[in-house]
Structure formats: C-alpha cells, structure tokens
Amino acid sequence: MLTKLEQVYEVLSCLPDPVFILSEKGDYIDLLGGTDTQSYHDGKALIGKTLHSVMSEDKANWFIGQIIDALDRNCVVTVEYDLAAAEVVGLDEHAGPAGILRFEGKIFPLSFMHNDDRVVCWLTRNISQRHQLEVQLRKQSETDGLTQIANRNYFFNRLSSITKHDVLHSLLLLDVDFFKQVNDTYGHLAGDQTLQEVVSRVQSLIRPIDIFARVGGEEFAIILPQSDDRSGYEVAERIRLAIANHPFSYKEHTFAITTSLGVTQIHQGEQNNEVFSRVDNALYLAKEQGRNRCVSLLK
C-alpha cells in the first residue's frame, strides 16, 4: 500500500511536462514528470549533478540567477529561454526533439532546504511551436507585403529606440519621382515591379545593419547606424545614381526612373516627428529643386 506522499509522487511523475527540483547552487535534486517524449528529452540522468557540470558556465550562471531571483523575491518567476539537448551533458540528443527548443520556465520557491540551501521547483514547458508562430506573426506585422522589407510601423518603432541612445545615425528619405506616371502608363503591375526593383538596387548598396523600410506608397526610409549626415549623403548619392543610370523595364517596355532623397542626422532625445519632419523637408527641397537629386538638412 502506497503512502499518501508516495501516491502524490507517483501522480506528479506522470506529468507530461518535466518538473525539476533545483537548489540555489544549481544542484539537480529531483525530476518529476517529463513523460511527453515528443517534446522533451529524458532528464533523469541529471539528478545528482549540477548545472555547472552539465552546461556552459554562461548558461549555468543564467539559470542560477533566475533561481536566486525567485527565491529572493519569494514569488513565482516566469522566464523564456532557448536550449538544445546537445548543450546539456547527459541528455541523449537523438532520443527526443531535435535542434534548439524554446522553453517557458515557471520557478516556484519551496519552503524546505536541501543541504542548507534554498530550493525551487522549476516547471518546464516546451513552447517551440507557439514561439515560432509568434515570430512569424511578428515578422508579418513588421514587413511590407509587396517589397518584403520593413514597414512603416517597424520603422517608427526603431526610430523611437534609436533617438534614446547617443549613437551616431543618419536618416535618408527616398521618393520615386513621378511614380504615378508609371502606373498610369504601364499599369499597376508595372508599378509594383518597379518598386521591387528600386528596393533591390537599394539593398545592394546598404549594409545588413542598416534599417530599410517602406513608409509610403513610393516612399522609403533608410536608417544608417554609425553614420553622420555627410556619409549619409554619400550613400544617398550612390543610391540616386544606381537608379537613374540604369533603365527599368516591364515586359517590352523600357523607361527611366529617378529618385529624390532627403538626408539628415538623428540626434539623441529627438521625437520621431521632429527628425522625420526635418528629413521630409530635405526631400521636399530636393523635389523643389528639380528632382533626381539629394539634399541634406542639419538640425
């Protein structure tokens, strides 16, 4: 006959999600549950070992930091983290889900001690599928459907974060000159293809760290980190020439496209509307002066 405690232990051992009992020093004291072998690897081999003995120092320190945080605050702490079986000594990476997995951990302080150390219950949940869906949905919400670059919302969110830091950035605002004529003459499919080609040419001239977004129908913004207005102007001029010096085509039609660009420098503490208004004024001057040119405006 099982005692009541043994019965509870047996029930907990049947849980699909693993529950680790860990000390504040990183000792694996016990493991309950984890019966869902499609979502988890068998962690029983970890019992009696320590976090530092089965994973890298950085990862072990991170886990211990979360444990101590929950204990010091005496409340449930929820964290998310990536981990692969190959990163944990003692796990059979071939007997469970492959690759880097995303987990949610709920850390509950417990009332008892283990060898004079405080103890937590770490409930683990594999949220890899949910996380992948969230990433896909976030990317869709931040991406322009036609050109597959960042959209207006993403651009202004990044601009807000950039103005909070004292790091040199320049901002370019590009407008395709007389774009309506392309739509009116050759149709909207030609217009769409033209915008895609403009994007392709710009992408060939900017760096991976640069932020390139479609902020209007035929209007694009580019944030250049570690760049002042002078180097930003040089990039703008290269873009202008790459578009103006090579004709565009749609089916049997060939036609010229030019662009006008405004350039400015982003300053720490500026509001989005302040910096964007300045670069928009620079773009307006480029159009007023005859288009197919770049104009820089300083604060």
UniProtKB/TrEMBL annotation:
Catalytic activity: 2 GTP = 3',3'-c-di-GMP + 2 diphosphate
Pfam families membership: GGDEF (PF00990)
Required co-factors: Mg(2+)
EC number: 2.7.7.65
A single MF term (Gene Ontology): diguanylate cyclase activity
Enzyme class: transferase
Gene3D superfamilies for this protein: 3.30.70.270
GO cellular component, one term: plasma membrane
NCBIfam families attached to this UniProt entry: GGDEF
Name of this chain's protein: diguanylate cyclase
Naturally occurring in which organism (per UniProt): Vibrio hangzhouensis
Taxonomic lineage of the native organism: Bacteria, Pseudomonadati, Pseudomonadota, Gammaproteobacteria, Vibrionales
